[in-house]
Amino acid sequence: MSKYQRPIRLGMVGGGNDAFIGAVHRIAARIDGQYHLIAGALSSTPEKAQASGKALGLKEDRTYDDFKAMAIREARLKDGIEAVAIVTPNHMHMAAAREFLKRGIHVICDKPLTSNLADARTMAQAVEKSKALFILTHNYTGYPLIRQMRDMVTNGDLGEVRIVQVEYSQDWLTEAQPEDNKQAGWRTDPKRAGAGGSTGDIGTHAFNLACFVTGLTPKSLCADLQSFVDGRQVDDNAHVMLRFVEGARGMLWCSQVAPGNENALRLRIYGSKGGIEWDQENPNVMRYTPFGKPTELRTRAGAGFAGQPEHLVRTPGGHPEGYLEGFANIYAEAAIAIRDTQSERSAKSETLLPGLQEGLMGMKFIDACVRSSTRDAAWISLT
After folding, report:
1. Pairing label, strands 161-169, 249-255
2. Which of 136, 169, 203 is the last residue of a domain?
3. Do 111 and 156 lie in a common domain?
4. Residue 58 φ/ψ region, left for φ over 0, alpha for ψ in the -120 to 50 degree band, beta for the rest
5. Do 160 and 271 fall within a single domain?
């Protein structure tokens, strides 16, 4: 992919001043020079939207008070946006995405897909009717070593996968947060985040990563959800057991009340021939242990690292890459897919972009966790 092609014209819904994930999306989009942010409906109030647009250098007439007006006008402009990043709280994903999809504008949406399963199914209908792409930013699938782990499982290096253990633990919600904490406010509000708290916010990342790397099909789960902080209306801790169609068994733990954990996403996979382990807080190193042999440490861009597309690795071995670069890899592959749709080539480039199906499975995961927990951790089907 040439770095000198015209940047894709990008818009953004949400992500105004003080919005953490909006800034992450903008950085990820800029890293490879493949996008140019030119329009936005950046906040829920006109005053904040205009202030945010000005801070980002957007033209006044390309800063909108609401996403519908933005979708209508941008679709009519000769130099209108070609793609939009949706970085709002979960409950707004479906309505915003639908407006852009029906006008042929590609959608890059933050996860989870929506705030509830009913909206997710409505979203699915909009995606299926549109000629535009729908991409879900499960950004951890963009890490180079995660891609290598997936290749190793596919190539049979681990043999038959038997055990999958994944966890994502944080501590930032260990205590009740002040009302002016914007990030905590919507994530702990079931009207905006959905019924799942930690399960929706970080559990979906862990679940998606386990499925992405192993290629296994989830069959059923049982979940024990807790809201440890008094007055909290969504779960802040969850223990989940998983069964896969292929016969493997899994365990998932997600928590936002685990002191000493910042963003501890860890994945361990064990098969009949060996095991692999990876830790997001040290993402440039992977442990691989063939059964009966010494453990090997494999590093991003180091010895034993092979088969990755050039756009996934930007710096030589020993120069760490991490969260922002992994996120940028989703945007890089999204750019490839968007350019493919704009070209007349019949052959499409190979990418591993998460999309509608991953989003629907994530919503089924949240829904099943909540239903299971209310039934004393009963097994719930995911198929």
Report:
1. parallel
2. 136
3. no
4. beta
5. yes
Q: Are residues 13 and 132 in the same domain?
A: yes
138/160 Cα distance (integer angstroms): 26
The answer on 179 and 82 residing in a single domain is no
How far apart CA 331 and CA 36 sit, in angstroms, is 12
Locate all alpha helices (DSSP H) within the chain, ordered by sequence: 20-30, 46-55, 67-76, 93-101, 117-129, 144-154, 182-187, 190-193, 198, 204-214, 323-342, 356-374
Residues 302 and 365 in one domain: yes
* Owning domain of residue 217: 144-311+360-381
Cβ pair 322, 146 in contact under 8 A: no
Dihedral pair phi/psi, residue 162, rounded to 5°:
-115, -40
3-state secondary structure 77-116: CCCCCCEEEECCCHHHHHHHHHHHHCCCCEEEECCCCCCC
* pLDDT tens-digit series, residues 284-293: 999 999 999 9
Q: How far is the C-alpha of 279 from the C-alpha of 258, rounded, in Å?
A: 17
Residues 34-65 have pLDDT tens digits of: 999 999 999 989 999 999 999 999 999 999 99
The whole-chain average pLDDT of the chain stands at 95
Same-domain pairing of 201 and 290: yes
The answer, yes or no, to whether residue 309 has pLDDT greater than 80, is: no
pLDDT tens-digit series, residues 148-189: 999 999 999 999 999 999 999 999 999 999 988 989 999 999
- What pLDDT score does 254 carry? 98
Same domain, 148 and 99: no
Q: How far apart are CA 52 and CA 59, in angstroms?
A: 11
177 lies in the same domain as 196: yes
